[in-house]
Amino acid sequence: MPAASEMRPEPLIFETGQPGRANTYFRDGAPLDEFLPETALRAGLPLPDNSELDVVRHFTRLSQRTFSIDTGFYPLGSCTMKYNPRINEAMAAQPGFRDLHPFAPDALAQGALQVMYELERSLSAIFGMAQFSLNPAAGAHAELAALLIAKAYFRKRDEGRERTTVIVPDTAHGTNPASAAMVGYKVVSLKSYARGRVGIDELKAALGPDTAVCMMTNPNTLGLFEDHILELTEAVHAAGGLMYYDGANANALMGNSRPGDMGFDLMHLNLHKTFSIPHGGGGAGAGPVGVSARLIEFLPVPVVTRDDAGAFHLEFDRPDSIGSMRSFWSNFSHIVRALTYVYANGGEGLTRISQLAVLNANYVRAQVKSFLDTPYDETCRHEFVASAQELKRETGVRALDIAKALLDRGYHAPTIYFPLLVPECLMIEPTETESKETLDAFVASLREIVETAKSDPQKILDAPVNTIVGRIDETRAARQPDLRWEPAKV
Amino acid sequence: MAQPQGLLYSKEHEWLKLDGDVGTVGITDYAQNSLGDIVYVELPRAGSGIKQFGSVGVVESVKAVSDLFTPIGGEVTEVNRALEGDPSLVNRDAFGEGWLYKVKIANVAEKDALLGPAEYETLVAEGAH
User: Exposure string (b/e) for A307-336, b if CB count within 10 Å is 16 or more?
Assistant: First the structure.
């Protein structure tokens, strides 16, 4: 593969080809209008007319320009871009799983149902919840499910009209307030106190008879574990509210602490993050939602159960369930990948994974703090934040420019400008799968960028220069978006 | 950087210009600089009632989406329509052409809860957010 800077821009598939290029394998086949009624046929669609070879080359070239965890280090905070072991793919690709029809009767799908059942039981054990539903399709989707469960719970207790508020700390994930608003809750934002965590007094002041749910991310988006988690959950319960755990940062926890033991009533997991499933670019995710015992009846259906004879069933008959969150049962191949990951590592392995994720983050943080500010300077969990605020004041180089310069050096950019409470923020999550050499090389690149910013800031402000597309005018893209290709008018 | 005289400021980086019981509201130069290029501003509707320090709209930049809090309560009488076509006015002239809305103030005494230019400058210098 040539260096990106030597590649030519790839034209759109619509802009290439010639009439009559497409390969025709059945030259003597009957015309389409013998199969389909006229009303189902459209003329004049501007479909590209390309040979098979040109199509293959087009998409292969595009794939070569895609950054992925398979090509480089991807320290994208709170997104847990870890290596996806190939054994996951081998298991998911087995014909018995791959070719199974979702409407196959339970009796013919016992193996698949057992996989779902065993993953559900594993997740419940790892995170200390009473039961999970594997139904939601991704993280924010599972947040929505959890809040619908909370709503159904309060409605059943005849408290639905009073409990209208969801409390979200400013260290939580950005999707939390959005999910709460979608369910019709009023969102109250809670400022974290000096240690970057939720203060018990601040929380108590926000609690009241209107409190439905408090949504927390622990460790939070600063990579910090709450100081008073047991007191916080107790206070919310005393006010009659439910505690929700955002599992996007679960990679710091496995085998070391359990949300169920902390007193959480609801939680979700991003299997595609913690349980090593390819994601990024909006690919399919999987977001199981888990609950404590008092909320089981509200879980989305179907839930896989096992009867006394040892047979597995998709259970739909749960009158108080919030219903299904999507068509069919789950992103099933992800369930296979996640269970493979659980069984390949075992309890001790998962525990060690989380410990190494924390160790790697601290190893990077301890070096980065010699050349960038690290607010909340203490041992972190699986990720940490650095700030380019001082660098910006000195040199004009912002977090955004550092991120662009990292692209030039072969790295995916970290999450920037989140959480909002740290100005010029870079949120770095190395994950457990990176070697010491990779981490050292990344730190050296980051250090070199900061040094260049001080000696020759324009070099960093001009980055990236080694990528196929240079610095993009993000402001113009947001103000005057040009979202779709349109054919030239004939 | 000195803050413009004759204005009052909120801790959330909004400014208020008083003219009798009519106030003009905007975000400060410090706020627009921290946000970066602004791409969209959602303003309260003219005629709507707003409460001091309540969330009344949204400022979206390439970096983040932030709530807009009103430094004073009352009834919105006019919004800056020019921002619909060109939100970058807030970046270019936060204290002038980039004003956000005008409000008929219900209780002028609410201004006592706001900061003067020197106090606001201290807040900004401390790097508070």
Answer: eeeeebbbeeebeebbebbeeebbbbbbbb
Tokens linked to A325: 């969150």
Contact A479 B66 (CB under 8 A): no
Which helix H or strand E contains A426, and what residues bound it?
Answer: strand A425-428
Domains A87-344 and A352-477 in one fold: no
Chain B residue nearest residue A399, CA to CA: B63
How far apart are alpha carbons A423 and B122 in whole angstroms? Answer: 18
Pair B70, B25: CB distance under 8 Å = yes
| CATH of span B8-110 | 2.40.50.100
Å from A174 to nearest chain B CA?
Answer: 10
* E runs forming strands in A51-190: 131-133, 165-169, 186-190
- Would strands A165-169 and A211-216 be described as parallel, antiparallel, or unpaired? parallel
Convert the pLDDT of each residue in B61-75 to its tens digit.
Answer: 988 888 899 999 999
Structural domain boundaries in chain B: 8-110
Asked whether the predicted pLDDT for residue A2 surpasses 60, the reply is no
- Whole-structure pTM value: 0.88
CB B46 within 8 A of CB B37: no
Of A317, A358, A294, residue with least CA distance to A152: A294
Q: What is the mean pLDDT of residues B101-105?
A: 97
| Cα A411 to Cα A404: distance, rounded to the nearest angstrom | 10
Instruction: Quote the CA–CA distance of A112 and A334 in Å, as a whole number.
Output: 12
Cβ separation of A423 and B129 shorter than 8 Å?
yes
In this prediction, residue A15 carries a pLDDT of 87
> SS3 of A464, please?
coil
Task: Yes or no: say if A466 and A7 are a contact pair by the CB < 8 Å rule.
Answer: no
Residues of A with CB under 8 A from a CB of B: 389, 400, 416-418, 420-421, 423, 474-475, 478-479
- How buried is A293 (Cβ within 10 angstroms: 0-12 exposed, 13-18 middle, 19+ buried)? exposed
Name the residue of chain B whose CA is nearest to A390's CA.
Answer: B127
Residue B129 CA to residue B123 CA, distance in Å, equals: 9
Count the neighbouring beta carbons within 10 Å of the beta carbon of residue B123: 17
Residue entry with tokens 């020019």: B82
Distance from CA of A194 to the nearest CA of B (A): 12
B26 has which bridge partners? B15
Superfamily of domain A352-477 in the CATH hierarchy = Aspartate Aminotransferase, domain 1 (3.90.1150.10)
| Residue A5, pLDDT above cutoff 60 | no
Instruction: Note whether B81 contacts A: Cβ–Cβ < 8 A.
Output: no
Beta bridge partners of B74: B50, B105
Residue A34 has pLDDT above 90, yes or no: no
Within 8 A of A473 by CB-CB distance, chain B residues are none
Q: What fold characterizes domain A87-344?
A: Aspartate Aminotransferase; domain 2 (3.40.640)
- For an interface test with A, which of B30, B37, B66 has the most A Cβ atoms less than 10 Å from its Cβ? B37
Judge whether B1 is closer than 8 Å to chain A, CB to CB.
Answer: no
Chain B positions in Cβ-Cβ contact with residue A418 (cut-off 8 Å):
64
**Interface contact flag, B37 A474, Cβ < 8 Å:** yes
